[in-house]
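Anyone able to model this chain together with magnesium ion?
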Amino acid sequence: MYNIVMTLDNLELHTPYLMLDGEFYDATDPEPLKAPYLVSFNPDAAALIGLDESVRDDPRLVELLNGTFMPRGGQTFSMCYAGHQFGNFVPRLGDGRAINLGKTHGWNLQNKGSGETLYSRMGDGRAVLRSSIREYLMSEAMHHLGIPTTRALAIIGSKTKVVRDRLEPGAVVMRMATSWVRFGTFEYFYYTGEHAKLQALADYVIDESYPHLNEDDDRYYKLFCEVVERTAHLIAQWQGVGFNHGVMNTDNMSIEGVTIDYGPYAMLDDFDYGYICNHTDQAGRYAYGQQPNVSYWNLTMLARALSPIVSLERTQQKLDDYGAFLYPDAYVDVMRTKMGLLEPADEDVELVKELVGALHDCEVDHTLFFRTLSRYDGDHGKLLDIVVDRDVMDAWLERYDVRLAQESRSQSARMEAMLKCNPKYVLKNYMLQEAITLAEQGDHSMVETLLRIARHPFDELPEFERYAGDTPEEHKNRRLSCSS
Ligand code: AMP
Ligand code: MG
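re: yes, here you go
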């Protein structure tokens, strides 16, 4: 089945979520955008659902996103969930501007920006071109960086005007996830006291995302354990690559431990442990350096939500493990790989701590530092030239030299491995903004350029060399607005 070349004619959807109780979702009709047009199409994502690249030229692709063409078997619905936003519980959130169409090849298709739903609260149900481009490109970039994430099939723009800080063009991005269930989905049924539905949700999630647990008598506890472990790995990867999500509310935490809901995120420019990408996050709850702590807090909220079906005593033990070694070990593993160290040593924890401190003091571009380190041959000069505080970096490199000497792998093998895990290109906000500005003027070429860069983070792409260096001074470490 997966090998058959498919067109929109034989794309077939099914809707297992609709087998759950009616409180889990609401049937929603999309409100089409005016004069829709294709902005970008992602053949990699299309291939995941068996669609051929020629779909790009099928006028129904735009209609699929605009809600005026529905593949066979599809049904439109929005999902209900709750969540802790900046630490405060909100009893009902839900897909305020996302409409699901159904599932194919294991991927749940969802249009974001299709109009008001039962869960829109004060919102207009719309998404603007700016935020749609950001989600589309970054989810693809994360995937190619090896970080679990949702994907995106395409974007459409339109003549519909959407009110934000200014009037902006309305857009729809079609996102794909192997699960759209969030920690907040469990919280909804915990706080409404509907424990039978909570259990039905857990069974649904196990069936969809953890099917090996299906027959297990202890499946709810094991489900929690797997979510904890996956989250540890996810956050470790975010920290390693310098990704700041920006809105780690529990409704933006995936039950599969993948990156979801791209908002005011940023890749680090100059390394800053306290960097806050989200302009509305005054207190820095979701600052880069806080992400491990916040993920722990979010997992405690999930444990509480699961308490009617798994004892808090058992989930607390797992949470303790998260803080004690699951997350720290995952993080040190990521960093060890980034530093090109193959054989674990006890001193690595200290080496990583000192590196983080040094990077912070050195105000050095995160991506550029690790890429430069990937070609380190014992000559400190090239690294000292890109940092502000040469003495601090020199001292760290002395330690690194000692540590490298313990490794049995050859220098060239180390360099080769490091060049495959330390990206040359990440999508920084200034690059995304260039693409957005052009796209708002009708020129989509840079979206395509960035899609190409997103797909090749570890390759040398001489024509895009300018994006591999330091972020231009005026664009460094800026904050982004949440209004999207
Ligand atoms: P977020 O933090 O962006 O993932 O969104 C938080 C909640 O607000 C979710 O329930 C969204 O569906 C909802 N939301 C965000 N923007 C809009 C909008 N423009 N219209 C309706 N609901 C929205
Ligand atoms: Mg969200």
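The longest strand covers residues 167-177.
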